[in-house]
Amino acid sequence: MEQKIFLKNRIHRQLKNQPITYGVCWQEGELFDEKEIALFDENNNQIPAGITVLNRWQDNSIQWTLLDFNIDIGESSHRTITVKTGNFPQIKPDDPVNVEIKNNDIVMSNGIVKISLSSKKGRLIEEWTVYGKKVVEPDGFDVFFKTLNNKKFSLKAGSRSISVEHLNPLRCVVRIDGKHGCSDKKEMLDYFLRFEIFAGRDDVKITYCFRNRELPVPGIKIKSMYIECRASVEKDAKKCFTAKNLTRYYQPGFLRIDEDPVIVASDTDNLDDFENQHKRGNMALVFVKDEKVLHDPDEQKPWFMRKVKYRMTVGHKLVFPYLALLGKNGGVLASFYQMNTLYPKEFKSRKNTFLFGIWPDWAKALSITQGAGRSHTIFVAPLNVDISDIEIQNKYLSWEVPMMPGWPPQSPVEISCDIEHVRKCKVFAIDMLPEYDMKNRPLFEKKVLNSWIGISYGTLGWTEEVVPMLPTGFWDYGDNGANNEEMFGLVYFQNHLRTGNWTSAENGIAIARHILEVDFVDFSIDALQNGGMVAHCLNHNDGAVYPSHMWFTELLFAYVLTGDKEFKNAATRICENLLQWIGNDKYFEIISGDHRESGQPMINLTWCYEFNRDKRYLQACEKIIKENLMKQVEKYGKMFAPKPHSMPLKLVRYGDYATWEGMFWYWKITKDEKVKNFMLSQLEWRLSNEFMTPFVYHRVSDINPAAYAYYMTGDRTWIDRIAKFIKASFRCAKWPIGWIHSMYALKIAFDLGIICDDDIIPQ
């Protein structure tokens, strides 16, 4: 048994010993021991790899594993890795990762870099060296924020615990959990901090995430928040970075200066009035605050480029979001990962200290709703004294690639799955989607990209490339602008596993992280709010939690592709919130309020059951079906919901698309004949001319119930009876159908010859 992983270097630079972390799936019943997995290159040479089991099938066979490995990839080149199972030796990399635990302190190393982390208050980093040479000064790393009355809280001053979150010879993640402390002994704002190192590399990835679990409602406000990293270099070290648009010809250029530059990410260069000039939803650029540090004199430019009022942009101040401090004995490089996505941001040096402005002081107050949080990542690496500017830049480009101005940086390597293997594994219903077939169905594939995914039409490359999630700001990035929309990220994740497109996966992960950190209520003093997911509201997380608007299956995709347990943990907590609504008679009236309130919890619970086989999930679905939906039929003759529920004025079928889907996933797991017969009896009238339409928009034009009936029975007449509506919708220039409510039916319609590629009409 084997599968492929396809890698593409997005940049025209060589990538050496590039770390790759990616989740792959396995067919049920095929593999039980992860030690049988081995990776091989194109010449059948075995590659050192770390293997972690993420999930198992019902029979305890492995469903998903996370792969960690390093690889060289040439300029704009492709690599193919074969993942095999069998009796292979376990080979280790050069400079493997090790961890040593001493008195609740942890030392992580790989023979190159060594970091000693302390759990004691007042200390954090005891040692950070490369080949024994200091990179960061002892006690030179901290995270701090200031309240509105200038009270300072810091990570070092607070209580904390340290643990090893992930460990194999290729990659190690040490995690610190705690609260920020103040000089008066008070503590405030929970956080976790991750230090991550890789085999054979000297760079370190650091992720910081805060969570508001404080009691005040609606939340707290802070004035500013910074990560501080004091490099072990001379205080008069040169500051090295790359400007994008120097001279009248807007040519990129390397700079080594004496001044301390301030690099910012913002949608306005009027930082003194950011609070009023910033427009929500705008895209941010990365530029220097003071253009004098560019040493690009106006006198050498024509008159129309000398004054900002003629340019109307900050294009002349754009820079790459990295900064190096280079002294007589070497230096340190640092970068604020995807700096413009969660703007406003600031990244600057102060002599030999890097300051990463998670929330800069010029941005005024940051409001953090109870239960909300955000994560930020930085990279730090040592530099040799004789390093060239292009080598510094190459090191930065192994972390991220800045693309179009105003667009987010992307990972330097595209990762594509073995799409035929994924279909065979039948994970996330990928086998129920139309097979990816650009050769025989090019019009369909192009229209899917244009209508449901979004493509650049050559802006990012030589062909149509998927548009990344736009950098819309601190709380907005990862949302589609509708404030928490129905299963928005599912489309991107399924498209990645169906086609192999990596930007779709990146978009899905950004959406899932928004759900995890912004929409998910990690803590609330309100029991129904606690552990739930907030519906549409003004600011993502200052509204109410209720069952129909908790769309979070994206968290499961993100978990298996990245291995980050935060995604899975949040999903299971939201399930607990749903069980609370379903299990309480008073709250169950809300579940019974309409078919979306009934259906979406069933979708969530059945999908999460695959990752946490808690019988309560299925029992809750059974209760919804038998104590609500079946009783509706007994009372009203059809599956209609009374509105309002407590004093009916009208019978409706609002949101029944969610109910059909939820019941279908429940049946797939349980094979409950009573539920099957009930669902088919109701689809007899629902899939009729009276209730079907090829017009309006995707929810109204829901055609997937025909697919559910077909899979339950194998009877194609369920598809035939609405074939006219399927074909009419499919032939519309502007599709009234959407991925979520049609793709399962379109797959069957293709297979049965009801639709074909020639039916496509361009929009």
Task: Explain what this protein looks like in three dimensions.
This protein has 763 residues and is α+β, with helices and mostly antiparallel strands. The chain has 4 domains: 2-85, Golgi alpha-mannosidase II (Immunoglobulin-like, Sandwich), CATH 2.60.40.1180; 98-211, no CATH class; 238-345 and 380-397, no CATH class; 431-679, Glycosyltransferase (Alpha/alpha barrel). Helices cover 26% and strands 29% of the residues. It has 18 helices and 32 strands. The strands form 6 sheets. Strands 15-16-17-18-29-25-24-20-21 form a 9-stranded antiparallel sheet. Strands 13, 14, 19, 22, 23, 26, 27 and 28 form an 8-stranded antiparallel sheet that branches. A 5-stranded antiparallel sheet has the order 4-3-7-1-30. Helix 8 (554-562) runs antiparallel to helix 9 (565-583), helix 11 (595-609) packs parallel to helix 13 and helix 15 packs across helix 18.
Outline:
With 763 residues, the protein is of the alpha+beta class. It has 18 helices and 32 strands. The mean pLDDT is 95.
- Name given to the CATH architecture of the largest domain: Alpha/alpha barrel
Radius of gyration: 27 Å
| CATH fold title of the largest domain | Glycosyltransferase
The rough form would be described as globular
- The overall strand count is 32
- Low-confidence parts: none
The overall pLDDT, averaged over residues, is 95
Number of domains: 4
What percent strand?
A: 25-35%
Supply the helix-strand structural class: alpha+beta
Helical proportion, percent range: 25-40%
The major pleated sheet works out as: 9 strands, antiparallel
In the CATH hierarchy, what is the class of the largest domain? Mainly Alpha
